[in-house]
From TrEMBL, chain A:
SUPFAM superfamilies: Aromatic compound dioxygenase
Top-level taxon of the source organism: Bacteria
The species this protein was found in: Pseudosulfitobacter koreensis
InterPro entries named in the record: Intradiol_dOase_core, TAT_signal
Protein name: Twin-arginine translocation pathway signal
Automatic annotation (TrEMBL), chain B:
Regions that span the bilayer: 37-61, 73-91, 111-130, 142-163, 169-189
Top-level taxon in the UniProt lineage: Bacteria
Residue ranges the record marks as coiled coil: none
InterPro entries: Fe3_Rdtase_TM_dom
Compartments (UniProt record): Membrane
Keyword Transmembrane belongs to the record: yes
Annotated keywords: Membrane, Transmembrane, Transmembrane helix
Main location: membrane
Name assigned to this protein: Ferric reductase-like transmembrane domain-containing protein
Length: 166, 200
């Protein structure tokens, strides 16, 4: 279980880390063909990073709750569940716009790689009722998701991550 | 009697969708800029319905000559409404609007809206340049109408794909009226006359 970095940019700014990241990226580049045979990594969705606020705090629940954002985090290739991974969530809800700080929060996956974060009801905004999720810690490649609710009245939304090591 | 009926129908087709949009439960969770931006979009759709009716002179009491004078003013209002719509959305969520304008948005409806916006600006620009460029009337009408058809199709698809403050039933009614009015006037005015003449 790794501890979440408070700010990815700060982390990347240290010279050693940059070299480390470069080496790791090169190595993972070589490993991609082998991994493709197993569980494929989840690609970042278009618009997923919109109104993202780095370093949203880990919270018991966002605002007054009433809606559940759920999902799993697994490792690309073997599909092993990843415990203790920090997932950030934000959306336009009954308690605020996407860009508002109180609309953002984060949670950690449990031993089965599952996360459940209670948050206010998501309401349609910018044409669709949708949520945003981010994995942006340093151990795996950053992924932003933007799942859409099939019905505006739904009280939960699911988003699954398959992460690729950096 | 017929005149009163036509004006009443038009008032209903325009006012009811706007009233539904103005009282949507979604407004409770939006700040004033976002509310204004959304309503400007609905208002633009409503003004759009007036445009062919005024250009074609089909409204009682507003024959083509007077109708077109009003058409120019409502056209300016339409352009302003679209600018308010996009500007307000930009203030509400800049990255979503940048995505839409660059055609990299995950939502297909935004591309239809952006295409309609540029076509609308093009149609308005043609009005501004009409005298200066001394374009032949029939060619000008063909170009203006061509752009307008893009505006109407783009706006209708844009509006129908959106889950927003407009009610589905009243939004559909307004869109159907817009398509019907546009087709009627384009056919009545034989907007394609410039093409036919060249061929014969």
């Amino acid at each position: 279980m790794t501890h979440p970095k408070p700010d990815r940019r700060k982390f990347l700014m240290s010279g050693g880390a940059v070299i480390g990241a470069a080496v790791a990226t090169g190595a993972s580049g070589l490993l991609v063909p082998a991994r493709a045979q197993g569980v494929a990594p989840t690609p970042t969705m278009r618009g997923g990073a919109n109104n993202y606020r780095p370093g949203a705090p880990i919270v018991e629940r966002i605002g007054n709750g009433g809606f559940w954002m759920v999902g799993t985090v697994r490792r690309a290739g073997d599909g092993a569940p990843l415990a203790g991974q920090r997932i950030q969530v934000w959306a336009h809800t009954t308690e605020g716009h996407e860009r508002d700080p109180q609309s953002h929060g984060a949670t950690l996956t449990d031993a089965n790689g599952e996360f459940r974060l209670e948050m206010p009801q998501i309401v349609p905004a910018f044409g669709q009722p949708h949520g945003h999720l981010a994995y942006d810690s340093a151990d795996f490649k950053t992924v932003f998701l933007r799942p859409i609710m099939p019905n505006a009245g739904d009280t939960s939304l699911r988003a699954d991550f398959v992460l690729e090591p950096v | 009697m017929r005149a009163v009926l036509i004006w009443c129908c038009l008032a209903v087709v325009i006012a009811v969708p706007l009233a539904v949009a103005a009282t949507s439960p979604l407004l409770a969770w939006r700040d004033p800029v976002y509310i204004a931006a959304g309503f400007a979009g609905a208002a633009a759709l409503a003004i759009m319905l007036l445009q062919p009716l005024l250009a074609g002179g089909v409204l009682p009491g507003l024959p083509a000559v007077r109708g077109r004078r009003v058409h120019r003013w409502t056209g300016i209002a339409l352009v302003l409404a679209v600018i308010l719509h996009v500007g307000g959305l930009w203030l509400t969520s800049p990255p979503d609007v940048v995505d839409a304008l660059l055609f990299t948005s995950p939502t297909p409806f935004s591309a239809w809206g952006v295409v309609a916006m540029w076509a609308l600006f093009g149609a308005a620009l043609l009005v501004a340049l009409r005298r200066r460029w001394r374009i032949r009337p029939q060619v000008w009408r063909l170009a203006h109408t061509g752009l307008v058809l893009v505006v109407v199709v783009g706006s209708v698809v844009h509006a129908m794909l959106i889950v927003g403050t407009m009610g589905t039933a009243t939004k559909t009614m307004l869109c159907l009226a817009l398509v019907a009015a546009t087709l009627k006037v384009v056919i009545d005015l034989r907007a394609w006359a410039a093409i036919k003449r060249r061929r014969s």
